[in-house]
C-alpha cells in the first residue's frame, strides 16, 4: 500500500534530537536496557513459537554435552589401547558410543537449523505485528512527527526482524557454556593451573567483544537518521508518483548523490569500527594461539616424563580445541546477544510507547451531537519551541449548522480541523462536544462520530471499491452504498467504466489479489487523475455521511468546474440539516454557510454570514472581491473571444 501523496511530499525529517545518544548512557542504564531487551526477546519467542523453542533447547543440550562425552570416550579408548590390557568388546562399545554421539550431533544440527527457521519466521512476524500495532495505538500525530521517534521505529523494525538472532545467541551461549564447562572440568582434572591460564586469556576477549558490540549499537543509533534518509531517497528515486518531477527538474542525479553521500557517511562509521575490531581480533587470536601452543608443549613435556597418560594428552588436545572453539563462539555470541539486546531496546521502546494523547481519567462516550461544538480560547503549537499557530480561537458550530473557515495560506485552518478530530490536544483552552471536553472523550469514539475529507487525502494502492469502502469498514462489502457514495462524489461513471469496474486496482504498482493471470491486461490497474482521486477520497468520506459532524477541508481542490459545481451542490444538500465545517479558498462555495469565520494571526479575525461580512468590508470582503474580479476578467475575456 502506498503512503500516498502526503508521505511522498513530506519526506522523513532530519536527525534524531532526543539528546539520548546511547554513547552517553551510563553503564547501569545500559545493563538495564540490555536486560530489558533480552527479556522482551525471550518473552516474544515464547509467545510466538513455544514448540520450536523447546526443540531448540533440546538440541542445545545435545550439542553442548556430546563433544565432551565423545572426548572422554576417546580418552578411554586411547588409554586402553596404550595399556594393552583391554577387552575388544569394551572398546567396540566405546567406539560405537563415539559414533552414536557423532550421529546425534549431526541430526541435532539439522533439526536445530529447521527449528531456527521456524523461530525466525514466527518471531519476526509476531514482532512486526506487535510493533506496528503499538505505533497504530498512538491516537495522535505528534509522536509520529518526531524524527527521533521515527528513528526508533526504523531501528525497532530492523531489530524486530532480528529477535531470532538474540534468542539464537542466547541458545548458542547456553550450548557453548555446557561444552566449556565439560571441557573445563576435564582440564581441571589434568591441570588446574593450565585451566586458570586458559580462562584468564579469554577474559580480555570477552570484554573487548562487549565493548565492540556496544560501539556497534551506538553506531547504529548515530547513523539511524542517515539510514532513514537514504531509504527516503531510494523511495523517491523509484516512486512513479515522484518520477515526473524528478525527471522534469532533472533531480535524479542530485538525489542519487545525496543518497550516496548518506550511504558513505554510514559506511565511514562502520569502516572505522571494523578497523578497530580487526586490530582487537588479531591481538586476541594471537594471544589464544600462544596459550594453546604453550599448553600443548607443556602436555607433551609431561607425557614424556610419564606424568600424563596418552589418553590424558588426547583428552587435553580435544579439550584445548573444544575449549578454544567454545570460548571463541561464546565470546562471539555474548557480543552478538549484547548488541542485539541493545538494539532490541528500540523495539521495546516503541512497543511500550505511551499514547501521545493522554487517556481521559473518566472517559465519556460522546453523545450524538445535540447542542454543538465549541472552541474556547484555543491555543496551539506543534512543538514546545515552535511558533503559536492558534492564539486564542473562539468559535462555535451549533448542531445542524454549517461553519465555513477561510483564511490565507498557513493561517491555521487545517490545524483547526486536526484539533477538532483530536489528532492533537490544544495547549490551552478547550474544545467541547455538547459541553464535554474532547480530552475526556476517547479519540477513537470521537472519530466514529466524524466524517472528514482532508486536504491531502490518501491514495491507497487498492481497488476502487476498497478505496471507497475504507470510509466505513462495517460497510466495506456493501456495493450499493459504495456506488451511492461514488455517485454523490461524481465519480461513479469514471469508476464503473474502468476495465474491471469497481474491482479495478487504482494502482500501477500491485496486482489485485484475485488475479489468476498477471498478464491479464485488465489486471494491471489504472492511475486516476488528481481530480478523480480527490473525488474518490470524497466518496470515502461520504461513506460516513450519516455521522454527527462532517468536515470538508478543501474538498474541491483539483476538481474541474463541472465536477466542482456538482460536488458542491451535492455537498450542500448533504450538509443541509447536518453539522458541518467547510474549509475552502473558493469563497463562492462558502457563501451559503450559516456562519463564516476568517482566521488570521492565530485568531478569528472576522465572523458572520456572507452578507454581514461583505457589509463589514473587512478582509473577507476584500478576498471575495479579488476572486470575483478574477472571474469577471475571465468572463470579459470569454466575451472578447466570442
Ligand atoms: N505537522 C506540523 N508540524 C509543524 N508545523 C505545522 C504542521 N502542520 C502545519 N504546520 C504549520 O502550521 C501553520 C498552519 O498550517 P495549516 O496547514 O493549518 O494552514 P492552512 O490555513 O490550512 O493553510 P493552507 O490554506 O495553505 O492549507 C503553517 O505555518 C504550517 O507550517
TrEMBL record:
Domain of life: Bacteria
Skewed-composition ranges (Gly residues): 11-22
Domain ABC transporter: 373-626
Recorded topology in the membrane: Multi-pass membrane protein
Pfam families: ABC_tran
Ranges of compositional bias, category Low complexity: 1-10
Cellular location(s): Cell membrane
Keywords linked to the UniProt accession: ATP-binding, Membrane, Nucleotide-binding, Transmembrane, Transmembrane helix
Transmembrane segments: 53-73, 93-115, 277-301, 313-335
Family annotation (Gene3D superfamilies): ABC transporter type 1, transmembrane domain (1.20.1560.10), P-loop containing nucleotide triphosphate hydrolases (3.40.50.300)
Span list, region Disordered: 1-24
Gene Ontology cellular component list: plasma membrane
GO molecular function: ABC-type oligopeptide transporter activity; ATP binding; ATP hydrolysis activity
ABC transmembrane type-1 domain location: 57-339
Identification of the protein by name: ABC transporter ATP-binding protein/permease
Origin organism lineage: Bacteria, Bacillati, Actinomycetota, Actinomycetes, Kitasatosporales
